[in-house]
Design a protein that fits this description.
The chain is mainly α and 438 residues long. 61% of the residues lie in helices and 0% in strands. The longest helix is centred in the first third of the chain and has 14 residues.
Length: 438
């Protein structure tokens, strides 16, 4: 006998049955999983709240799950002696910014692992980096390796060490690809660096792990709006409003996206503008500059190509230790990108950027996804992890053959590239019968 596949609808949500009896952590986990399996199940829970059956602690838990924290608090408070309910209550107060109340509820956090994790997440949510660092040192022994690394990353991020934070979040996702907090924070950080495509991918992965993170879905909508995909942006803002109809930020962005749909846009101009802006956001550190040039630019607070082209030759040469050699080095890099020093805002807006001002001969072969020879296929076919892809982009690697021409030493010399990523690349190449040079 063979199994048959049916397309029967999922059973209707029954919150009363799911929350019957004493509340415990397993019951809460099963409830949240059932609630967020589909958009319809979330709507069913909202409908249930309007029935006479929705009362007491069960109603409080439902409101907590939907993010209606202020309403949930009063209903859960009488049951704070229940460990699972206490965690929901603490989560409510953390979302409302009531850190003193969280402190009182999680009084056993020095010995209770669940309370320790909940307390650190509360400090994370209010952005108290110094207190988070101090309490992580005291409570870290109660955490698993992934959560320890995640909070280490948050401490670094709150101390404005973006590179260190990204490295930590990459480590977390190497251990647990579905760590929703690390996915979201990594997405935020690469988003701030202007790496829009990678940020979109990470936000979308985070949204596959319910419940809906309103900040995540709004940020994703903004990225879609930036590339002119207003319909997809509106879908994101609608999702945020489904999770919380009072989300003023999502409502504002949705109105802007809807207005944009009714306007005419020159799609070719939009693409040119996007290409220009992406080029001007390119970090100076992505280019092979001498130590002297790099240090001088850093001291002048020049972080991107956009910052650099606004400077004139005279301004650069007036800086201590910056000479003709460094100037010529920078002019050569800008020339390749079709740029020069001292460009005005009008010049930047009217110029198609990204092409060299003089023809550049490309000797390497273009990627060919249909080629029987694996060295000519695009590097994307290796399906590398986020960290490995970042290094591939940094080294301007386009084909699998380009990657196999690198040595282990060249890869390990890249920032935030370690043995785990190296082993991943070696394994992927080995599957194709290839290896790194040397």
């Amino acid at each position: 006998m063979t199994d048959t596949v049916t397309n029967e609808p999922l059973p209707s949500l029954d919150p009363s049955a799911l929350l019957a009896g004493e509340i415990n952590q397993a019951k809460l986990d099963a409830f949240r999983k059932a609630v967020f399996q589909t958009v319809d199940s979330v709507e069913e829970l909202r409908d249930w709240l309007s029935t006479p059956m929705a009362k007491g602690v069960a109603r409080g838990v439902a409101l907590w799950a939907l993010g209606r924290h202020a309403e949930s608090v009063a209903l859960l408070e009488p049951e704070r002696s229940n460990p699972a309910v206490a965690l929901c209550l603490a989560d409510n107060h953390a979302a409302l910014g009531h850190i003193d109340q969280v402190d009182s509820i999680l009084a056993k956090r020095s010995t209770d692992a669940a309370q320790a994790l909940s307390w650190l997440r509360a400090l994370d949510s209010i952005g108290d980096g110094e207190r988070l660092a101090a309490d992580l040192a005291k409570l870290g022994t109660h955490l698993g390796e992934t959560d320890r690394k995640y909070f280490d990353g948050r401490v670094r991020e709150l101390r404005r060490d973006s590179e260190g934070a990204i490295a930590c979040y990459d480590d977390v996702l190497a251990l647990d690809p579905n760590h929703r907090y690390a996915l979201f924070r990594l997405a935020v950080n690469v988003d701030l660096r202007g790496e829009d495509e990678e940020a979109r991918e990470l936000y979308e992965r985070a949204l596959m792990l319910p419940p809906v993170n309103a900040a995540c879905v709004v940020n994703l909508g903004i990225l879609y709006e930036d590339i002119g995909n207003y319909r997809r942006a509106m879908q994101c803002f609608d999702l945020a409003l489904q999770a919380n109809p009072e989300n003023a930020r999502a409502r504002l962005f949705r109105r802007d996206a809807a207005a944009a749909l009714n306007m005419y846009y020159d799609e070719d101009q939009e693409r040119r503008d996007d290409k220009r802006n992406k080029l001007l956001r390119t970090p100076i550190n992505d280019f092979e500059l001498s130590v002297r040039s790099r240090n001088c630019l850093a001291k002048m607070n020049i972080k991107s190509l956009g910052d650099l082209v606004k400077k004139t030759e005279a301004e650069l040469l007036s800086y201590k230790n910056f000479g003709e050699t460094s100037l010529n080095e920078i002019k050569d890099i800008l020339k390749i990108k079709g740029l020069r020093l001292g460009m005005t805002a009008d010049e930047l807006m009217s110029k198609d950027l990204g092409e060299a001002s003089e023809p550049v001969v490309h000797t390497e072969e273009a990627p060919d996804p249909e080629s029987p020879d694996p060295i000519r296929r695009p590097i994307t076919e290796l399906d590398l992890s986020v960290r490995s892809r970042r290094i591939v982009d940094l080294l301007k690697i386009r084909t699998i053959g380009d990657l196999s021409s690198k040595t282990e030493a060249e890869l390990l010399a890249c920032p935030n590239f370690g043995q785990t990523s190296l082993n991943e690349i070696k394994t992927k190449l080995d599957e194709l019968g290839l290896s790194l040079r040397g």
